[in-house]
Amino acid sequence: MSRSRLVLAAAFLAVAALVLADLGAARPAAATVTVTAKEFKFTLSRKSVPKGAVTFTVVNTGKLAHDFKINGKKTALIKPGKKATLKVTFAKAGSYPYLCTVPGHAKFGMKGVLKVT
After folding, report:
1. Residue 31 pLDDT
2. Nearest by Cα to 49 from 69, 29, 66
3. Which of 12, 74, 89, 106 sits at 20 to 30 Å (Cα–Cα) from 55?
4. 99: closest CA among 15, 35, 14, 46?
5. How far apart are the C-alpha atoms of 55 and 23, rounded to whole Å?
6. pTM value?
7. 8 conformational bin, left if phi > 0, alpha if psi -120 to 50, beta if neither
8. Angle at the Cα of 93 (from 87 to 97), degrees rounded to 5?
9. DSSP structural state of residue 110
């Protein structure tokens, strides 16, 4: 085999190894946030998440039904003692307000801001 073919073959193998390494690289796991809802506040397990996919698990420990709305998405009404899951993708960093949309609940404190970095 000629020297130029050996160099070309070595370069091809190096590029192939880099591509395969990139394909096998671990992708960051989606962030998860547990949201506890009760009269009249939310408690989040995290106050900041990286941009991308976030799964919110909303647990209603109160005595009234609540929901959770953020970035244009919201859960169904969650009965006391029940939970719901909401998947939201944040395309860019920033501050994202959240709230309970049951009339009067946000006014009494069921609201806040999640920071996306």
Report:
1. 95
2. 29
3. 106
4. 35
5. 24
6. 0.76
7. alpha
8. 60
9. -
Question: How far is residue 92's CA from residue 82's CA, in Å, rounded to a whole number?
Answer: 31
User: What's residue 28's pLDDT?
Assistant: 59
Q: Considering its fold, how many domains does the chain have in total?
A: 1
Does residue 65 lie in a domain region?
yes
DSSP state, residue 5: H
Q: Which domain holds residue 88?
A: 31-116
Question: Which helix (DSSP H) or strand (DSSP E) does residue 101 occupy?
Answer: none
Q: Are 111 and 88 in contact (CB under 8 A)?
A: no
86: CATH? 2.60.40.420
Q: pLDDT tens digits for 35-67?
A: 999 999 999 999 999 999 999 999 999 999 999
Coil/strand/helix, residue 7? helix
SS (H, E, C) 19-69: HHHHHHCCCCCCEEEEEEEECCEEEECCCEECCEEEEEEEEECCCCCECCE
- The residue ranges of the chain whose pLDDT is under 50 are 25
With respect to residue 25, please indicate whether it lies within any of the assigned structural domains. Answer: no
